[in-house]
Every structure is written in C-alpha cells, then in structure tokens.
C-alpha cells in the first residue's frame, strides 16, 4: 500500500515538474557561456565580416560532424590518420582551413618537414648510390662506388631506375622508405616502440639523402616553399646540425649548416617578402651521454653568441620513454638556462607516474619557455597551475601523437581539455614529412574537427594562430611585422570566404 502511494506520488511529481524551474535555463546558459569564455578564443570578438565567414564555416562543420554523430561508424577521427588522409582534401571545412593564415610553426624537426614526393625528386640528382636491405635504405652521393660497407651492394639510383621495368613503381617503392604512410593498409594497433623503430628508419633514410650539401640546399628551399604555401609565415626549427659533405668527401661542421639555413632562408625571403624567417632550436638525442649533451650545449652557446637572431635555444629529442629523463641533466641544464632558452620536449607519454611523465616537473622547474607535447599534463593539476602561472605554452602535435601511438581516437586527446581550459596552446606538426601530411593544415583540421568542441569556431582558430606568434621566440620588432603580415592575410582570407561562390548554397545571412 505504502509503495503504491509513493509510486503515485512520484508520478504526480513527475507530471507537475514538466515546467522548467525558474531561472534554470538562465543558469544553464550562464554556465555554458562561462565555459565558452574560458576556452581558447572565447574572448575573441568577431567583426561583421568575420561573423559571416564564421557562419559559413560553422554550417560546414556542423554538416560534416552531424553526419558522423548519427553514423559513428563513419567518423574518421576515431580511426587512424592514414585511413582518411587521402579524403581530407574533399572536406569543405578543410578547404577553408587550408587557405587560412596560420601564423607560425613552433615545433618541427628539420629533417622531417618535407613531403616524400619531393624527396623522391631529389633522388634524381646525379651520383646518388643506394644500398638496399629488405626494410631499409642507405643513400650516398659519390663519384665512385662508396667505400662504406653495405649489407647488399651499392648501386647507382639512376641505373636502378633506368633498369627497372616501371620507373613510376620504382619511385613509389623508393618513397616508402621516406614515409610511414601507407595508403592501402589496415591500421592495426602498433605499440609505441615498434612504431618508433619504423620512424627512426625513415629518419635515417632521409638523413642519408639530405646530408649532401647541394641536396640540403634544395631540400631547404622546397621545405620553406611548402610551409609558405600552407600559409605559415615563420618557423622555429629543431635541428641537431649534422655534418654535411661534398662529392669530393669534404665535410662541413655545424656552423656551416646554420649558415646554409640562413642563406637559403634569406634567398627565400627576397622572393617572398612577407615570409618573416626562421629560428633554430639546437638539439641532441636524449639517449646520449651527459658529456655529449654538454658538448651540444657548448656549441649552442657559441653559435648563439655569433648569430643571436638565428639561434632560439636548446632541446633534447628522441623517444622520451627510452632516453634519459631530464633529471639526469639537471646540473648542466640549470647552468645552461642562464644563457640559453630551453624549449624542452616533456611528457610525450601515456604512462602516468613514470620518469617520462615526471619530465614535466623538470621542464617547468628548468624554466622551459615552451613545452614540446606535454601530452601527460592533464593528469597533473599542480603542474597545470604552474604552467598557467608561468605562461608556458604547450606545443601540441595531434597527428604525431596518433601516428606515434599515444592516442587512437582523437576525441580523447588531452588537447580538448587544454582548449576548454584556455591554456596557452600552439598547434604544430612535429614531423609532417614523415607521415606525408601537409605542413600544418592537416593538424589544424584534425584538431578543429576531431578534438575541439563541436561549438569551437573561427575564434578558436584565430586565437591558435595568434598564440603561435605570441609564444614565438621572435624579437619584438619582427613579432610586430609577423602580426602585421598575419592580420593583412587574415582580412583577405575573410573576404575570400564570404565572397566565395562555392558557399552560395549555404544560404547564410
Ligand atoms: C545538426 O544536428 C543538430 C542536432 O540534431 C541539429 O539541431 C542541427 O540542425 C543539425 N545541423 C545541420 C547543419 O545539419
Ligand atoms: C571520411 O572518410 C570517408 C571514407 O571512409 C570519406 O568518404 C570522407 O570524405 C571522409 N571525410 C573527411 C572529412 O575526411
Ligand atoms: C573557395 O572555393 C574554392 C572551391 O571550392 C576552394 O578551392 C577555395 O579554397 C575557397 N576559398 C576559401 C578562402 O575558402
Ligand atoms: C642495369 O642493366 C645493365 C644491363 O642489363 C646491367 O649491366 C647493370 O648491371 C644494371 N645495373 C644495375 C644497377 O642493376
Ligand atoms: C638505360 O637502360 C637501357 C636499356 O636497358 C640502356 O640501353 C641504357 O644504356 C641505359 N641508360 C643509362 C643511362 O643507364
Ligand atoms: C652564405 O652566404 C655568405 C655570404 O654570401 C657566404 O660567404 C657563405 O659562404 C654562405 N655560406 C653557405 C653555407 O652557403
Ligand atoms: C663545455 O664548455 C665548458 C666551458 O667552456 C668546458 O669547461 C667544457 O669542457 C666543455 N665541455 C665539452 C664536453 O665540450
Ligand atoms: Zn618533437
């Protein structure tokens, strides 16, 4: 009896509660508005033209996302990047993102920036020998057969190509050594060590091609061209400065490569005056000895004294879980930071409570100006507060984290939280050449469509581009020039979007 009475009462309450309580909707809106205001770009104010462009962008974004919300089996961003890479071009949202000015790239490694199709073109240079094994290739330019040992045998690439029945197939095969991307493959789970082994093979193949001085010059020019065409106007490049060689065997030291970068970039700027330039962050493999790292710091100090506008600072690179933790280098890094800015990779791991994870603590205490990846940061509330207080930017590379096996469904990438909290975030691409990605547009696209809120709009994209300028190592005068170039291109971009005939079908106001 009693139970029945309660049930009847509950039913009555449900029925009478069909009106929404006073203020509920107001409070609901206020909470959501507060979240929007906190998020990256939430405080950006759009003018009338930007508002119209935003309506177009958001209509396209909602259309593309709605389709997947109701058919999650088609949602590309919960799959491996390689499985939808070739379809990205078809997205209308992508067309807008590609033409959007994106400011600067602040996290990218010098040997892995260029698309493998162009690397293959560079193998048409004369005097190139190859040594193949079943899964690796070593290249060397030489007048005579190289004296270095080869597990198989050295052969001229031009002869191999000429002898092959199908030069296009030959080139496609060659390209596979320069990239992890495979178009027609199932992307089963690979563990982080396996994928890093493959990644390192790609790196060594490319490195063996581009340590030849004439090829490095072309490589650098083509790289700048691709980044510029992707609407990137300034780059901070991490480089270990390998020795280059000439055909006669002459070797060039580290300073020479710095000069080569400078000369190549100056020439590019002459032809493209709105490109602002580059700075270098010199690196050493974190798996090496403390003495080797000290030597690299010494070189950085010397080069910075000679070319202060070109050298931004120092970093340690390589697979973080397998290298030494930052805590091994505290004496030398805390001394170095007095003269050299640090831009440390830290927390590029999914392992909580490990030394890699705790690299975040040391990166913050060592005064790192920005943090490379910081993937593990959301698990550390105190470190997150410290990062906000010190205004340390996070260099986030979503596609890299997918390809190098940290995350599978990008909706679960910590960037979603960083964006929601309004952390100082910059988007970058790490090694776009190694996975055949566009220099930066693919990363912006995946972050915008796959990671950020469905409601995140043009204001977020604009703020991310602005962040890349704000958190760059540029001196004030060049930073102002970069801002001027950016805003000029931004205005043109907005006008292009709202006057684009191809968006007429959307019937926005
Ligand atoms: C997307 O889905 C939402 C919720 O179902 C709906 O309100 C909205 O009109 C849809 N938008 C588009 C562009 O399809
Ligand atoms: C998603 O993938 C499908 C194929 O599975 C493709 O047709 C579609 O264009 C892709 N969409 C995007 C936005 O890449
Ligand atoms: C304008 O539309 C064309 C055709 O769809 C597209 O290729 C281009 O990127 C668009 N431009 C902008 C700024 O969206
Ligand atoms: C190319 O073919 C020629 C003629 O058959 C042969 O002598 C030569 O060894 C081949 N070169 C290579 C690199 O395989
Ligand atoms: C290319 O191959 C053809 C046929 O095997 C041969 O006659 C020709 O000499 C080769 N050319 C070069 C540059 O190796
Ligand atoms: C760079 O340019 C300077 C001035 O033209 C020249 O002296 C120097 O040899 C060049 N260095 C390299 C590595 O190209
Ligand atoms: C680095 O420089 C310091 C001071 O100039 C010197 O004492 C030290 O021997 C150098 N170390 C290496 C490994 O080059
Ligand atoms: Zn990196």
TrEMBL record:
<dbReference type="GO" id="GO:0046872">
    <property type="term" value="F:metal ion binding"/>
</dbReference>
<protein>
    <recommendedName>
        <fullName>Adenosine deaminase</fullName>
        <ecNumber>3.5.4.4</ecNumber>
    </recommendedName>
</protein>
<dbReference type="GO" id="GO:0006154">
    <property type="term" value="P:adenosine catabolic process"/>
</dbReference>
<feature type="signal peptide">
    <location>
        <begin position="1"/>
        <end position="17"/>
    </location>
</feature>
<comment type="similarity">
    <text>Belongs to the metallo-dependent hydrolases superfamily. Adenosine and AMP deaminases family. ADGF subfamily.</text>
</comment>
<dbReference type="Pfam" id="PF08451">
    <property type="entry name" value="A_deaminase_N"/>
</dbReference>
<keyword id="KW-0964">Secreted</keyword>
<dbReference type="InterPro" id="IPR013659">
    <property type="entry name" value="A_deaminase_N"/>
</dbReference>
<dbReference type="InterPro" id="IPR032466">
    <property type="entry name" value="Metal_Hydrolase"/>
</dbReference>
<dbReference type="InterPro" id="IPR001365">
    <property type="entry name" value="A_deaminase_dom"/>
</dbReference>
<dbReference type="Pfam" id="PF00962">
    <property type="entry name" value="A_deaminase"/>
</dbReference>
<dbReference type="GO" id="GO:0005615">
    <property type="term" value="C:extracellular space"/>
</dbReference>
<dbReference type="InterPro" id="IPR006330">
    <property type="entry name" value="Ado/ade_deaminase"/>
</dbReference>
<feature type="domain" description="Adenosine deaminase">
    <location>
        <begin position="192"/>
        <end position="483"/>
    </location>
</feature>
<dbReference type="GO" id="GO:0004000">
    <property type="term" value="F:adenosine deaminase activity"/>
</dbReference>
<feature type="domain" description="Adenosine/AMP deaminase N-terminal">
    <location>
        <begin position="14"/>
        <end position="97"/>
    </location>
</feature>
<dbReference type="InterPro" id="IPR006331">
    <property type="entry name" value="ADGF"/>
</dbReference>
<keyword id="KW-0732">Signal</keyword>
<keyword id="KW-0479">Metal-binding</keyword>
<dbReference type="GO" id="GO:0046103">
    <property type="term" value="P:inosine biosynthetic process"/>
</dbReference>
<keyword id="KW-0378">Hydrolase</keyword>
């Amino acid at each position: 009896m009693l139970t029945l009475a309660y049930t009847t009462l509950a039913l009555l309450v449900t029925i009478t509660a069909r009106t929404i309580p006073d203020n509920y909707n107001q409070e609901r809106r206020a909470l959501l508005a507060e979240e929007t205001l906190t998020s990256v770009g939430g405080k950006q104010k759009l003018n009338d033209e930007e508002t119209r462009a935003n309506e177009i962008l958001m209509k396209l974004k909602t259309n593309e996302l709605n389709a997947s919300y109701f058919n999650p089996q088609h949602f590309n961003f919960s799959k491996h990047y390689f499985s939808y890479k070739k379809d990205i071009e078809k997205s209308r949202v992508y067309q807008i993102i590609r033409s959007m000015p994106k400011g600067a790239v602040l996290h990218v490694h010098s040997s892995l920036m260029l698309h493998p199709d162009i690397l293959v073109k560079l193998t048409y240079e004369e005097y190139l020998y190859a040594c193949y094994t079943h899964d690796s290739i070593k290249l060397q330019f030489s007048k005579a057969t190289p004296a270095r040992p080869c597990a198989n045998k050295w052969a001229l690439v031009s002869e191999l190509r000429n002898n092959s029945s199908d030069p296009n197939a030959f080139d496609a095969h060659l390209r596979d050594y320069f990239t992890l991307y495979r178009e027609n493959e199932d992307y089963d789970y690979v563990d982080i060590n396996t994928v890093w082994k493959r990644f390192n093979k790609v790196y060594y193949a490319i490195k063996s091609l581009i340590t030849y001085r004439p090829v490095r010059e072309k490589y650098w020019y083509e790289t700048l061209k691709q980044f510029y065409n992707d609407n990137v106007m300034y780059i901070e490049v991490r480089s270990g400065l390998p020795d280059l060689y000439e055909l006669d065997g002459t070797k060039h030291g580290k300073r020479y490569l710095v000069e080569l970068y400078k000369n190549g970039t100056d020439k590019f700027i002459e032809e493209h005056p709105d490109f602002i330039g580059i700075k270098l962050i010199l690196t050493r493999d974190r798996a090496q000895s403390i003495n080797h790292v000290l030597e690299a710091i010494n070189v950085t100090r010397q080069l910075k004294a000679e070319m202060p506008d070109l050298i931004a600072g120092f970093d340690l690179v390589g697979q973080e879980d397998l290298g030494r933790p930052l805590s091994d280098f505290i004496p030398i890094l805390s001394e170095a930071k007095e003269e050299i800015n640090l831009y440390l990779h830290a927390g590029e791991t999914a392992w909580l409570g490990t030394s890699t994870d705790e690299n975040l603590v040391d990166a913050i205490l060592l005064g790192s100006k920005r943090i490379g990846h910081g993937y593990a940061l959301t698990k550390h509330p105190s470190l997150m507060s410290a990062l906000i207080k010190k205004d340390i930017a996070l260099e986030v590379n979503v596609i890299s984290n997918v390809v190098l096996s940290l995350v599978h469904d990008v909706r679960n990438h910590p960037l979603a939280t960083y964006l929601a909290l309004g952390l100082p975030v910059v988007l970058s691409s790490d090694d776009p050449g190694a996975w055949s990605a566009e220099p930066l547009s693919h990363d912006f696209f995946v972050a915008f469509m796959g990671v950020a809120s469905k409601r995140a709009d043009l204001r977020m994209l604009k703020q991310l581009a602005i962040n890349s300028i704000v958190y760059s190592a540029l001196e004030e005068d060049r930073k102002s020039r970069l801002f001027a170039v950016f805003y000029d291109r931004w205005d043109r971009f907005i006008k292009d979007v709202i006057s684009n005939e191809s968006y007429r079908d959307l019937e926005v106001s």
